[in-house]
Amino acid sequence: MAKPKPRVKVPKKAKAGEVITIKTLISHKMESGQRKDKKTGELIPRQIINNFKAEFNGQLVFETDLEPAVSSNPYIQFSMKVPESGEVVFTWTDDDGSVYTTSKKIAVG
């Protein structure tokens, strides 16, 4: 599998106290562990993104656990209130312990 690529859409500017919408998507096949390999008949091991979290200036603002029933390339959308300028750090954790991160800055003016 190619390395999962996280993508996020965050407004670059906001007003203090404004509620913004953040959209995320990560390219990942989300193998449930219930399908069989067509050649060998063996179960394909589970490999999913099992946790996603977003932190703003080091403070957790959103977190969710994902389960095998989630489709490939999971899309997550959430809202948050922006109190000040800062950086949102997004983290996806895979079953195998791999961690994928990206970040975006928001300017309050």
Taken from the alpha-carbon principal axes, the silhouette is elongated
Percent range for helical residues?
Answer: under 10%
What share of residues are in beta strands?
Answer: over 45%
For the largest beta sheet, what order do the strands appear in spatially? 2-8-7-4-5
Question: What class would the helix/strand composition place it in?
Answer: mainly beta
Query: Roughly what is the average pLDDT, rounded to an integer?
Result: 94
Number of strands: 8
CATH homology group: Immunoglobulins
CATH topology: Immunoglobulin-like
Shape-level CATH architecture: Sandwich
Report the top-level CATH class: Mainly Beta
What's the tally of helices? Answer: 0
The string of secondary-structure elements, in order, is EEEEEEEE
The parts where pLDDT drops under 50 for at least 5 residues are none
Give the biggest beta sheet: 5 strands, mixed
Q: How many angstroms separate the termini?
A: 42 Å
